[in-house]
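ARCHIVE CARD
CATEGORY: sequence design from structure
SOURCE FIELD: tokenized fold
FIELD CONTENT:
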């Protein structure tokens, strides 16, 4: 059986999202913000984050998937395109975790083709060890050196997304 070791508590997550939400609210004041969640891992983070952003904004979802088990397959699959028009607008991409950075680099590349005025990145977890792509994570809640974590939207083979806090997974 895989072992789950508590890493980040519900309270820590809550406080950090309040702080990041306040920052985003200030930074995007007067801009045309569209918050775009990257499925599926960001769905819980996105739901909590947008409730801490107190300026008017719209919400969309894109689907991108690169993982099989605990290692990246190297292939990115797009499973859903944005519904909203993003041209000339200020896009904030919301990801669960940035690991190699390949998923996000590809997602940003495809977003650019839609001609938004700006694109920034907000990630729940910025995991450094295996980064391959040069990416600037504009807003990150937590940094992690290495390991494989689950909970709060993050999965291992589609399981554990429902855990309310973040755990280190030991297989
Ligand atoms: P990247 O393309 O290597 O940056 O991988 C990003 C995607 O891999 C994330 O959106 C997650 O779905 C998944 N991923 C990477 N590291 C972890 C982890 O520690 N736990 C769960 N999923 C992860
Ligand atoms: Mg995943």
């Amino acid at each position: 059986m895989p072992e789950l070791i508590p890493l980040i508590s519900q309270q820590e997550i809550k406080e950090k999202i309040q702080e990041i939400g306040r920052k985003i609210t200030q930074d995007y004041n007067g801009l045309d913000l569209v918050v775009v969640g990257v499925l599926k891992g960001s769905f819980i983070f996105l739901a909590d984050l947008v409730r801490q952003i107190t300026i008017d904004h719209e919400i969309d979802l894109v689907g991108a998937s690169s993982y099989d088990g605990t290692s990246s397959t190297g292939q990115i699959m797009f499973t859903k395109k944005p519904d909203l028009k993003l041209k000339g607008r200020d896009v904030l991409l919301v990801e669960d975790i940035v690991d190699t950075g390949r998923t996000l680099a590809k997602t940003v590349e495809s977003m650019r083709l839609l001609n938004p005025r700006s694109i920034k990145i907000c990630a729940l977890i910025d995991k450094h060890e295996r980064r391959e792509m040069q990416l600037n994570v504009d807003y990150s809640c937590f940094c992690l050196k290495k390991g494989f974590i689950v909970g709060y939207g993050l999965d291992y083979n589609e399981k554990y997304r429902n855990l309310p806090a973040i755990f280190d997974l030991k297989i």
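CARD ANNOTATION: Helices lie at 10-27, 43-50, 102-112. The chain has a mean pLDDT of 93.
SHELF: design records, drawer C
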